[in-house]
Amino acid sequence: MRPAPLLALSIQVISAFAAASAHAAPVVEAEPSRLVLGPRARAEITIRESAQDLHGAVSVGTLLAGASGEDFTRFTWTPPPDLRAPTLVLFAFWTGESPTLADVTVLALPCAGRTDLAIETEPSAQVTVEVAGARFGPRRADRQGRLKLPVEVGPHAHEARVIAELSDQSKIRVLPLSLPPSPWLLVTSPASSTDGSPVHVVLVVPDTEESAGIELVSEGAKVEQLQTVGRRLLYRVTPDRDRSSIPLVARTLDGSARAQMTLEVVRPVAATPVAAPPTPPPPGRWVLGGTIGGYVGGGSNAGPQGAFVVGYGLPKLPLVLELELGIRHQSMSTQVGTLGVQTSSLTVFPIELAVRWEALSAGTFRLGIRAGAGLLAGIHHLSSTFDSELSEGALGWEVFGALQAGLQVGPVEPYLEIRPTLSKVSTDHLEARPGGGVFSVGVRGEIR
Amino acid sequence: MTRLHPLVMLLLAGCSGATLPPPTIVSVSPAERPASSSGELTVTLDAILPTLADHGANTVTVDDRLTVTIGPRPFGPSRWADAGVLSDFVASVLPEGSYDVTVELGDGRLATATGAFRVTTGDWPVGYTVGMIGDQTSGVPFGVTLRAQGGMDGGYIGTVNLAVPNATVSPSVSGPFSAGLRVETVTVTVDHPGTYHLDVSDLGGRTGRSLDFHVAQ
Question: How far is it, in rounded angstroms, from Cα B68 to Cα B79?
Answer without folding.
Answer: 10
